[in-house]
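STRUCTURE:
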């Protein structure tokens, strides 16, 4: 047992709070003590209760310790790495040769804590000619990306630490975080009488409990709520005209329909008192600054893209961009957002946003005889057989593939269906990092060091991709020889050869991640960080001023080298970019540099939704089930072992006291929940936080004996018409006593 603290980070949500850990136990690989790292520039010592249970990730029950090959009878046999790499490369190459590289689909690339695999995978994908890919972002954030891209050429985040008004739309940051030091910030907002916390949620969540104004909408009515708020804004002349004149175009086209909105009627639909909606809107309009965040409660719900648009209008029409306490556009290290591609997906013709095929169409792009169907899939650091809509159909789709290869640390629901499973080092057995770098004005990046070596039989993804690319013949020993040679004379000599022979050579440029990994001589604790040199170079070319202010100036090569060196040596993370509020509006990249308020298709959608043909519920399914709530001890399926949960071990279905009374249900009892797609028996928790007619099941359950996997109950066809995101928070359901 050691008593010195080692710096690392939590990997259970996108915040990646810096941690310090003490190691002990068998092999020195157990976390005996865990605390927040004061030296981490983003989290500054903060950590929530989940971080203290990370040993359950490192010592997972379902850990894979050797490459696995599926036998004809469905069982697996262990094989050695040389065989695994040779056979996987040969099978994928054969799919490419028969059906074209475009038939090889890539899914994943990273989760909440690990984005380096996806960076290395770009080499493998290019070596295979694979074109289509996706990840979890294409079932949550692509509506926001698409709207943001069309209005501003980018997406924004917001400054909750300094805002006067905080507005959370379908988000419960008390549990889900997504903003730095969430609970500290929420408590400060709550107790300061000069600041207002506004929450839109059908449940009385922990965040709503702290709120000054809780707009407790009926599930799935956010489009009406936001319409009402925008109606009030325009009709009461509360908009920020000066901002609109200076920084937007299309004001008249949006004002006209908003003026015509029947606020009272919209409020009635939401079930929220009109006076409260007017008050909330006036508070926002009158505030010096508002920060807002839309999340899954609306992004995985009906009219999600429209709601995203209305939310953006609320921000723009109140001028809440580019000042302290409002929205900002951070300097990215790697940009993970983006707009729509020209080419749609090959079978369903679905819109591809930020390069990602909508998750909800993947199964139908496999289960078809269309000649362009996907024939093989490489899944890395993701568990789509569990996390995507309609698990039953998704499993069928995976089973229909010619080849499924899964790179994971654990025998996930997806890995169990693979032809080959390639076992990866955990996020503490290799260097790792994420590209969730959204801080402002000081933006933070953290390359976490490897804490201990992986057990024999597992490899970091960087090594797996390097071996695959080599087996595919895309990088040869002759390609690497001059770089190895130059490296002997130091980094500068190496860099000169790298720029000329790799970046200057179209065949090798896409292989840069793997070549960096193979030829940079780095200590084992940071070896998988090699790809960051290439990413730092791109950032230095794109954002020289913010990098220079953070101490990484000079020509791009020099700046990148300084930044890379600092990344390797900053165990607790570093500030890689320093922005200024005055720069934000200049980062709008639409033609003319203004916010485009009028999006005709979404204005037409608004008219349709508010129009007369309002749909009625289905009497066979009188409840609305929100399938996938974030709770105290949920973290997608990163930790698979239910024992890590100190609360809510079986993932109870929450139901209002009045519905429970009607059905004769009590906490701890069982109930059968049925949707159009499936049925399951679940534990009941009667909860004052729930409103009548609404049910809520937690996310990430069903990986062990307890709880139910939410997507056994969801359906892939229930999705947004614009970007294909699922309606997981709005699943029609009924209950029967079990
Ligand atoms: N503890 C924990 N934290 C996590 C995660 C985790 O698994 N566990 N996952 C991380 C990930 S990947 C993500 S994307 C984020 C997601 O973070 P959130 O979006 O905050 O998470 P959810 O709990 O899924 O949904 C938020 C809220 O939406 C509400 N909601 C349901 N229906 C509606 C509706 O019709 N309208 C409105 N306005 N709200 C509605 C729910 O009641 C819920 O409180 O959390 C991250 N943080
Ligand atoms: N019904 C419903 N479905 C949902 C949601 C919901 O609210 N409701 N939420 C959705 C959201 S927002 C998200 S983000 C997704 C998340 O779903 P996914 O993106 O599929 O992610 P995880 O469940 O976190 O699975 C991550 C996988 O990575 C593996 N892993 C962990 N560490 C490593 C590593 O270092 N290397 C490798 N190679 N693998 C590793 C884990 O074992 C696990 O199998 O779920 C979505 N699904
Ligand atoms: S789960 Fe908690 S400790 Fe871990 S990164 Fe998220 S907020 Fe930080
Ligand atoms: Mo997510």
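SEQUENCE:
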């Amino acid at each position: 047992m050691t008593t010195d603290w080692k710096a690392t980070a939590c990997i259970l949500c996108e915040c990646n709070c810096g941690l310090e850990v003490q190691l002990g136990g068998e092999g020195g690989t157990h976390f005996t003590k865990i605390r927040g790292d004061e030296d981490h520039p983003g989290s500054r010592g903060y950590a929530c209760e989940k971080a203290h249970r990370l040993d359950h990730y490192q010592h997972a029950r379902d850990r894979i310790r050797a490459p696995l090959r599926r036998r004809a009878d469905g069982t697996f046999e262990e094989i050695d790495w040389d065989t695994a790499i040779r056979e996987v490369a040969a099978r994928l190459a054969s799919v490419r040769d028969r059906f074209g590289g475009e038939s090889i689909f890539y899914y994943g690339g990273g989760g909440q804590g690990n984005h380096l695999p996806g960076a290395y995978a770009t080499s493998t994908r290019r070596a295979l000619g694979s074109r289509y890919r996706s990840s979890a972002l294409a079932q949550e954030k692509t509506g926001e990306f698409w709207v943001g891209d069309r209005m501003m050429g980018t997406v924004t985040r917001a400054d909750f630490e300094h805002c006067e008004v905080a507005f959370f739309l379908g988000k419960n940051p008390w549990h889900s975080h997504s903003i730095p030091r969430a609970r500290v910030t929420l408590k400060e907002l709550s107790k300061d009488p000069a600041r207002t916390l506004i929450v839109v949620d059908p449940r009385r969540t922990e965040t709503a409990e702290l709120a000054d104004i809780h707009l407790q909408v009926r599930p799935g009515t956010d489009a009406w709520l936001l319409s009402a708020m925008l109606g009030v804004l325009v009709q009461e002349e509360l908009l920020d005209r000066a901002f609109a004149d200076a920084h937007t175009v299309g004001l008249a086209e949006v004002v006209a329909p908003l003026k015509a909105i029947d606020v009272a009627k919209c409020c009635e639909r939401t079930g929220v008192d009109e006076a409260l909606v007017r008050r909330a809107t006036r508070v926002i309009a009158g505030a010096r600054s508002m920060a807002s965040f839309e999340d899954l409660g609306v992004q995985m719900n009906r009219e999600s893209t429209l709601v995203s648009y209305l939310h953006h209008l609320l921000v723009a029409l109140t001028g809440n961009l580019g000042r302290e306490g409002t929205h900002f556009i951070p300097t990215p290290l790697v940009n993970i957002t983006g707009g729509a591609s020209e080419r749609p997906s090959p079978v369903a013709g679905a819109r591809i946003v930020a390069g990602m095929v909508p998750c909800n169409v993947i199964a139908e792009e496999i289960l078809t005889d269309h000649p362009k169907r996907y024939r093989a899939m490489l899944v890395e650091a993701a568990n789509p057989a569990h996390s995507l809509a309609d698990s039953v159909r998704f499993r069928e789709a995976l089973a229909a593939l010619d080849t499924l290869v899964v790179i994971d640390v654990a025998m996930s629901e997806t890995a169990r269906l693979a032809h080959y499973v390639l076992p990866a080092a955990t996020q503490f057995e290799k260097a790792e990092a994420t590209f969730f770098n959204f801080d402002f004005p000081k933006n933070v990046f953290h390359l976490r060091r490897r804490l201990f070596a992986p057990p024999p039989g597992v490899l970091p993804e960087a090594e797996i991709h390097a071996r695959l690319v080599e087996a595919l013949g895309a990088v040869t020993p002759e390609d690497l020889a001059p770089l190895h040679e130059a490296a002997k004379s130091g980094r500068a000599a190496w860099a000169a050869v790298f720029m000329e022979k790799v970046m200057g050579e179209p065949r090798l440029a896409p292989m840069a991640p793997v070549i960096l990994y193979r030829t940079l001589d780095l200590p084992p604790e940071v070896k998988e960080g090699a790809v960051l040199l290439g990413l730092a170079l791109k950032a230095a070319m794109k954002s020289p001023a913010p990098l220079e202010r953070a101490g990484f100036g000079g020509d791009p090569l020099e700046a990148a080298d300084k930044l890379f060196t600092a990344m390797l040596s900053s165990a607790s993370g570093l500030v890689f970019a320093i922005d200024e509020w005055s720069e934000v509006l200049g980062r709008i990249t639409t033609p003319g540099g203004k916010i485009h308020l009028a999006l005709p298709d979404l204005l037409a959608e608004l008219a349709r939704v508010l129009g007369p043909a309002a749909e009625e519920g289905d009497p066979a399914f009188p409840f609305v089930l929100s399938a996938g709530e974030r709770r105290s001890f949920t973290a997608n399926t990163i930790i698979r072992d239910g024992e890590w949960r100190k609360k809510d071990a079986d993932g109870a279905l929450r139901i209002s006291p009045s519905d429970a009374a009607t059905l004769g249900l009590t906490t701890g009892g069982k109930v059968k929940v049925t949707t159009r797609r499936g049925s399951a028996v679940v534990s009941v928790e009667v909860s004052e936080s729930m409103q009548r007619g609404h049910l809520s099941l937690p996310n990430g359950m069903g990986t062990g004996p307890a709880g139910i996997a939410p997507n056994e109950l969801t359906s892939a066809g229930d999705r947004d018409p614009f970007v294909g995101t699922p309606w997981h928070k709005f699943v029609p359901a009924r209950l029967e006593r079990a």
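REMARK: The chain has a mean pLDDT of 97.
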